Amino acid sequence: MFGALEPTQLIIFILALLSAITIHEFSHALMADKLGDPTPRLQGRLTLNPLAHLDPLGTILLFLVHFGWGKPVQFDPYNLANPRRDAAIISFAGPASNLILAAILALIARTNPQALLILVPFIQLNVVLAIFNLIPIHPLDGGKVLVGLLDPKTASEVDRFMSHYGLIILLILIFPLFGAPLISSILSPILNLILNILLPTTPLI
């Protein structure tokens, strides 16, 4: 993928990737701080400096296999008024911030055609990061959001199941065991729908 990009395109792609990860993790940290947990602030995560949010291994894998992750934001549930609900809110803040940023950039792109080519990768990557993370399995944000929406008994059962098998399910979805990754067929319709709404005249990914 990266070998096919021109130097300028590669730089734009890297900047788009860094900004998407940074706003995602910063929003987790900001929401935890707003809900009463100082842990992210004390760990230096309440910043828009990309270096504070990059996981070395996750960043390397992003470029090698096009799958990776940022450094997870840690929070202490004992500092939260309603741990299960607040954990879901903190988790949702990351994907929500990506979608909000994508919508803002899409508005700019629609009114400024000169910025369109530069902004499209930023919009696409923010949408991809948001929707991927909303898959309702651990260790993704969607897993915590799902647990926060369920009644306590069901939430406990789902949380226990996902703690044991969530990562295995995620790996099965991601890796191309029988051709294209299963995750592609699941997410592509959703991604294309959102991107078509944001940028109806732009080729979809």
Structure description:
This protein has 205 residues and is an all-alpha fold. The protein has one domain. Helix content is 67%, strand content 0%. The chain has helices at residues 7-34, 39-42, 56-65, 83-111, 116-133, 141-149, 152-174, 182-198. α1 (7-34) packs antiparallel against α4. It is globular, with a radius of gyration of 17 Å.
Oligomer: single chain
Helix content: 55-70%
Number of helices: 8
Shape: globular
Order of helices and strands: HHHHHHHH
Describe the secondary-structure layout.
Layout (H helix, E strand, L loop, with lengths): L6 H28 L4 H4 L13 H10 L17 H29 L4 H18 L7 H9 L2 H23 L7 H17 L7
Helix pairs in contact: 1-4, 1-5, 4-5, 4-6, 5-8, 6-7
Summarize the model shown.
The protein is built from 8 helices and no strands. Helix content is 67%, strand content 0%.
Annotation keywords:
mainly alpha, globular, 0% strand, 205 residues, 67% helix
